[in-house]
C-alpha cells in the first residue's frame, strides 16, 4: 500500500490564527464536503506565504463562512492572512485522481482543479 493525495483545497486564506484553541484547523464545512475531508481527519497544511508545513486534524466550521482558522500551537507557524494549501491523503495500490478545488481570497469555491493542470495554477499566478 502507498499513500496518495486524495483531497486538496488550494490557495485558501487563513481567516484566523487562535493560539488559545486546543489544536486543529477549522475549515468551512462546504469546502470540506467538496473535497471529502471528514471531521477529525488528518490534514497537511502547507503555508505558501512562509513555507511552514504542519499536520493536524480538520474540524468543520459554519457552512459558507469561508473560515480557515489555524488553532493551537500551529498558530505560531501560520498567521491570519497567510495563503495555504490543505491536503488529505489516503492509502491504496494505485493513485486515483484527487478531488482538488481552487478558492478565492475569501475562501469561496471557484472551481475544481483537473489533474492535468498540475503546475499550471502556480505558473499562472507567478506571471501576474
From TrEMBL:
Post-translational modification: Is synthesized initially as an inactive proenzyme, which is activated by self-cleavage at a specific serine bond to produce a beta-subunit with a hydroxyl group at its C-terminus and an alpha-subunit with a pyruvoyl group at its N-terminus.
The protein's required cofactors: pyruvate
Residues that hold substrate according to the record: 56, 72-74
E.C. number(s) listed in UniProt: 4.1.1.11
GO biological process, one term: alanine biosynthetic process
Any one Gene Ontology cellular component term annotated for this protein: cytosol
Gene Ontology molecular functions: aspartate 1-decarboxylase activity
Lyase recorded as keyword: yes
Domain of life of the organism encoding this protein: Bacteria
EC category: lyase
Signal sequence interval, chain numbering: none
Subcellular compartments: Cytoplasm
Cofactor binding note from Swiss-Prot or TrEMBL: Binds 1 pyruvoyl group covalently per subunit.
Residue positions, PTM Pyruvic acid (Ser): 24
SUPFAM superfamilies hit by this protein: ADC-like
PANTHER family the UniProt entry points to: ASPARTATE 1-DECARBOXYLASE
Protein family: Belongs to the PanD family.
Function: Catalyzes the pyruvoyl-dependent decarboxylation of aspartate to produce beta-alanine.
Quaternary structure, from the entry: Heterooctamer of four alpha and four beta subunits.
UniProt-recorded name of the protein: Aspartate 1-decarboxylase
Record lineage: Bacteria, Pseudomonadati, Planctomycetota, Planctomycetia, Planctomycetia incertae sedis
Amino acid at each position: 500500500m502507498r499513500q496518495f493525495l486524495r483531497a486538496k483545497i488550494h490557495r485558501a486564506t487563513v481567516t484566523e490564527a487562535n493560539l488559545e484553541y486546543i489544536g486543529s484547523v477549522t475549515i468551512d464545512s462546504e469546502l470540506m464536503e467538496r473535497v471529502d475531508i471528514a471531521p477529525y481527519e488528518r490534514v497537511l497544511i502547507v503555508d505558501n506565504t512562509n513555507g511552514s508545513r504542519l499536520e493536524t486534524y480538520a474540524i468543520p466550521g459554519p457552512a459558507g463562512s469561508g473560515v480557515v482558522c489555524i488553532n493551537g500551537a500551529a498558530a505560531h507557524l501560520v498567521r491570519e492572512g497567510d495563503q495555504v494549501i490543505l491536503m488529505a491523503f489516503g492509502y491504496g495500490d494505485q493513485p486515483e485522481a484527487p478531488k482538488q478545488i481552487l478558492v478565492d481570497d475569501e475562501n469561496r469555491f471557484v472551481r475544481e482543479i483537473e489533474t492535468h493542470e498540475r503546475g499550471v495554477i502556480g505558473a499562472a499566478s507567478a506571471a501576474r
